[in-house]
Amino acid sequence: MTSVAIEVFLQTLIAGLLLGGLYALIGLGMTLIMGVMKIINLAHGELMMVGMYIAYWMFVLFNIDPYLSVFIATPILFFLGIALQKFLINPVLKVEAILPENQVILTVGIGMVLANLATIFFTSDYRSTPVSYATNAFYLSDYWKASPIELSLSVPWSVSFILAVIITISLWFFLARTDTGKSIRATAQDTDAALLMGVNVKLMRVVTFGIGSGLVGAAGCLFLPIYYLFPSLGGQFTLIAFVITILGGLGSTIGAIIGGLILGVFESMTATYIGMGWAPVGRFVIFVVCLIFLPGGVASLLKRKKLGK
Amino acid sequence: MKKNIPLIILAILAVLPLTGTSTYMLHIVILVIMWSIIGMSWNLLGGYCGQVSFGHAAYFGVGAYTAGILYTKFDISTWWGIPLCIIVVALFSLVLGFIVLRLRGPFFALATLASGEVMRITAENWVDFTGGTMGILIQKRTWVDKTWYFYIILIIAAVTFILVKKLIHSKLGYYFVAIREDQDAAESLGINTTLYKTIALCISGVLTGIAGAFYTSYMGYIDPHVAFALHDISIITIMIVMVGGVATFWGPFVGALIMVLLAEFIRSMPGLGTAHQTFFGVLLIVIIIFLPNGVVGDFKKLKRLVGLGRASS
Questions:
Q1: Alpha carbon of residue A200 to chain centroid
Q2: What is the C-alpha to C-alpha distance for residues B272 and B289, in angstroms, rounded to an integer?
Q3: Which of A6, A23, A157, A259 would be a feasible disulfide site paired with A247, CB 3.0-4.6 Å?
């Protein structure tokens, strides 16, 4: 391997890890909802799109930095999620129908309406946020003069990644240490047992949907400075979130984080070594391989290790 | 009397072009029939066998591209695509079924959704073979007049209807319903669920593929965004069956009629064209909440609702 090849490889790896951190945040929201409610939220990517548009308009109208918009978009998405769950999904959970997948189809309908409303109100133009630091980067050679290879680290990517890590850690703290978090985990593990232990399962479902939406809204704000924005971007992120959920193991938080990182690295490798357009096919390949060889996801590996002790 | 209803409808449809309907009307009827074929095939897999597929665009697109590639690469008429796509789509369904049928419920749904997307991306990127985003244009249409297209699609629809009806009333159909109701129970009673799910997927895929091959011949143009469209094909297919009625014979027809007319109506309204997905989405939400078994499945409930509305006013 020449030094150029090593440089390309390391650069790809870094880009993949940074991307993976953000993916993990998207996957976390879905895995939470899936764990507690046992349904897949196919409007997940569209909710992220809503979060991105909130951050975009905050930037354009009030000149609020997208990173600060996390504090605006997350609460809005939280309440939007609660409203969706309370008024649309909950009624369907009670309805008797031939197909049990009605709730999933319902979330498709919600996603369609959200994406189409965004097209109507904001047109289908591609937009990006012209933040002043968009092209700034750290260079390895600035810090280590004698370095044999040159690596760069984009500023907005790094900031987004760090914020994603902070949000993930605070979520973990919330789930592991607070009463509400413990109730949510109990509901995910066994709904009936949680109900018997006096957990308000109904409330937990609503709260979880809200938290999941809020998380993906935050992810949208973090994605805005490094990505462009258009109304139909939701679909691809829904797929990403789902692949991460499968890869990580259904309903597993740690799994989602590891899954996100794996997917990010894999995707950035596909883009560098095979071709930009094939990255989504790479996603499907990893999905299929995971289903065939590791149906329980990363979480099952972790569990096996624990049992081995 | 009730037994003859399909024959009567077929007879009425068969004389339709002779009564001098306008080309536009005929076009709408062709679209309705094409969508009911896709709806029926989805219904076989989703409604009777319980495997809700979000990726029927994959089969539709493979069928459409089989016909299109025959024309561009081998210079054969696109009509040969209809018999050929039976083999191609059946093989494709076998391969895909091997992967996606391991999954259940919502996971199956998402895996099929991903498969449709992957097919679209493959068609976009494999430029040498599929023509990429440029698509395939059939320069010479077989007929200018729509009458023959109408009869061809009508025959396909009639065959599909008979096939689905025979299947559902055969032993196979009961296996399908058993798998839908409880897969584990079906397995424990000695039904080879994987085999029967694969059969359902293959038949459903092939029927959809035939509709796709017809689409290429009829429209004369396909590209990855048309043939593998997520919203305009996969989701619309589900909507047709959901609106019409899951696991009913007439559901796909009623659904196709409602959806095609609604789509045309929205398109003709100035200023509403861009909002058609909002209308579809809201309709889907309303149907799922209030008529979960569709217009045909919940016909009694619908009648009562309308009756109540009349009584109160």
A1: 27
A2: 25
A3: A259
Is the confidence at residue B312, as pLDDT, over 60? Answer: no
Average pLDDT, chain B: 84
Across chain A, which distance is largest between two alpha carbons, in Å?
70
Place of tokens 């584990």: B184
Q: Is the predicted ipTM greater than 0.85, yes or no?
A: no
Q: Determine if the pTM surpasses 0.90.
A: no
Distance CA(A293)–CA(A296), nearest Å, equals: 9
Q: Do B274 and A116 touch (CB under 8 A)?
A: yes
Return the number of CB contacts < 8 Å for A and B. Answer: 129
Closest Cα partner for A112 from B55, B281, B259?
Answer: B281
- SS3 of B69-89: the string is HHHHHHCCCHHHHHHHHHHHH
Give the C-alpha separation, B227 to B59, whole Å.
9
Distance of CA A249 to the CA centre of its chain: 15
Query: Domain limits of chain A?
Result: 3-238
The model's pLDDT over B103-122, given as tens digits with 9 standing for 90+, comes to 777 778 878 888 888 888 88
Cα–Cα distance between B87 and B97 in angstroms, integer?
Answer: 15
Whether A309 shows a pLDDT value over 50: the answer reads no
Contact between A172 and A31 (Cβ < 8 Å): no
Instruction: State how far residue B278 is from chain A, nearest Cα, in angstroms.
Output: 4
Q: Is B232 on the interface with A (CB under 8 A)?
A: no
| Residues of chain B with C-beta less than 8 angstroms from the C-beta of A88 | 285, 289
* Burial (CB count <10 Å: 0-12, 13-18, 19+), residue B96: buried
| B41 touches B165 (CB < 8 A) | no
Query: What digits encode the pLDDT tens for the residues A40-85?
Result: 888 888 899 998 888 888 888 888 888 888 888 889 999 999 998 8
Which domains does chain B carry?
A: 22-312 (1.10.3470)
Which residues, at least 6 apart from A234, have a Cβ–Cβ distance to it below 8 Å? Answer: A43, A44, A45, A46, A47, A48, A49, A111, A114, A115
Name the residue with higher pLDDT: B181 or A100.
B181
Using the beta-carbon criterion (under 8 Å), do B107 and A246 form an inter-chain contact?
A: yes
Q: How far is CA B95 from CA B101, B115, B120, in A?
A: 10, 11, 17
In 10 A of CB B185, how many CB atoms?
11
User: What average pLDDT does the structure give for chain A?
Assistant: 82
SS3 content of chain A, % helix, strand, coil (to 5): 80, 5, 20
**Which of the pair, B48 or A1, is modelled with greater confidence?**
B48
Residues 3-62 of A with CB under 8 A from B: 39-40, 42
